[in-house]
Structure to design on (271 residues):
């Protein structure tokens, strides 16, 4: 994995931990994102897991100083726990984010932590060919039946009136996908290909909605954030865009709206 001065990787392999000793290797096809669940911590608190008494271990911890790698990236972590359909540890590389204390959870800290997560996800997707759609947080994996019942990271990511309001899992997946396309020189696919995108309407919740929200936001329309959820604010933003583009104000993203978004995207240099 390439190094980055802004997001340095410290190798602190937990050689005494039972998970490290088990050394079960496989090629990861997904990424699971967790948070430690208690405020005011950094990587130093979790060094104590380098002990044979511990039965849990992520591949890494992230704090406001960067990344502390605890296991090789292809070693199966002991992290998510099992759900009714299986265990995400079997195919996901996983890491924990240290949550700053309330007084230190500033816009600067949030931007750094999110940027660190995004950078690491990009590197892991490149190294193992992981589809960005397979980047999931603990609570998302639980809903799909592949993890224990935890709320992270959605108990603080995207939370209104906090430094994290603008950062969501949908935004992360979208930005990782676009970064990979840019690195591959795939500038054509950064536009909005209306032929391959489905019709979207209120109530939808997926990466295509996040793509529309991201583009509308960059064009100056308020969607209420990039969370992949087609709610009232997104509906209002789409109708406003349709009005400005002299389209039927039905709030549905169909072929004509995709086309207009694509043209605006190209004209304004969005992305």
């Amino acid at each position: 994995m390439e190094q980055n001065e802004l997001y340095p990787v410290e190798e602190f392999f937990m050689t005494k931990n039972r998970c490290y000793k088990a050394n079960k290797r496989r090629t990861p096809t997904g990424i699971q994102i967790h948070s430690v669940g208690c405020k005011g911590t950094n990587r130093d608190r979790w060094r104590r897991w380098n002990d044979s008494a511990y039965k849990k271990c992520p591949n890494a911890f992230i704090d406001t100083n960067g990344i502390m790698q605890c296991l090789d990236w292809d070693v199966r972590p002991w992290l998510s726990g099992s759900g009714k359909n299986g265990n995400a540890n079997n195919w996901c590389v996983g890491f924990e984010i240290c949550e700053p204390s309330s007084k230190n959870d500033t816009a600067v800290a949030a931007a750094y932590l999110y940027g660190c997560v995004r950078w690491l996800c990009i590197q892991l997707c490149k190294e193992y060919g992981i589809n960005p759609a397979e980047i999931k947080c603990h609570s998302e994996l639980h809903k799909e039946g592949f993890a224990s019942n935890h709320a992270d990271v959605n108990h603080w990511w995207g939370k209104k009136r906090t430094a994290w309001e603008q950062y969501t899992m949908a935004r992360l997946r979208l930005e990782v996908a676009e970064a990979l396309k840019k690195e591959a020189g795939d500038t054509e696919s950064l536009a909005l290909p209306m032929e391959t995108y489905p019709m979207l309407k209120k109530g939808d919740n997926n990466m295509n909605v996040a793509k529309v929200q991201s583009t509308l936001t960059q064009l100056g329309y308020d969607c209420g954030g990039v969370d992949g959820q087609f709610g009232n604010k997104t509906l209002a933003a789409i109708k406003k865009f349709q009005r400005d583009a002299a389209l039927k104000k039905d709030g549905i993203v169909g072929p004509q709206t995709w086309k207009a978004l694509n043209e605006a995207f190209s004209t304004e240099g969005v992305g």
In short: Helices lie at 18-22, 107-128, 138-143, 169-183, 207-218, 232-244, 255-268. The chain has a mean pLDDT of 90. The radius of gyration is 20 Å.
